[in-house]
Amino acid sequence: xxDKYKHSRQIPPKDKNPFSSAMKKNGQGxxxxxxxxxxxxDEEAYMGLYxxxxxxxxxxxxxxYRDKAFVExxxxxxxxxxxxxxxxxxxxxxxxxYLLKAFRRFLYASxxxxxxxxxxxxxxxxxxxxxxxxxPADTAQVRDKRFHAVQRxxxxxxxxxxxxxxxxxxxxxxxxxxxxxxxxxxxxxxNLMFQALKQLRKYMxxxxxxxxxxx
Length: 215
Description:
globular
């Protein structure tokens, strides 16, 4: 764990990665280069991995288990495990899907040890891939109505449907990346997404088009 946070399991403030400029200067501009530097024991690269991705992992952890202390503990232990096993890890060309897949397994294993029940969040915010679902012409009232419609609809989906919606529309992952993380083939991923969106459309009615069908 980076020195600044190693005595605390609290997630640091969400901010722009302060190590990005230094990493580019040192030739660590791509995921492959950053990962290789991390595996060589470069603490700056490790800090980059931590600051850049910890909030994504935290939000996924809170999506699955609404227990802040538990999720923070698991993230702390996960990054320690990552550092200690770095030399044994395989080469990585896309860091975030790799970390999310590894963290998902680590999270489930930790939950099983502590007998934590999966508790899908009813406060998950669905956005477009890598961006917001808001449109310039939207009023605050319309956005609020959409938000509450999503919140009411999501608990109607089963676990894997909620998870695939999170990966696709919140994290902006590709179908191939989602399949790799969830251990599903392409056909199963598409079928799962189709069923999830079909259910959301059923529960959300016309508000569906303002969230998932907008350009």
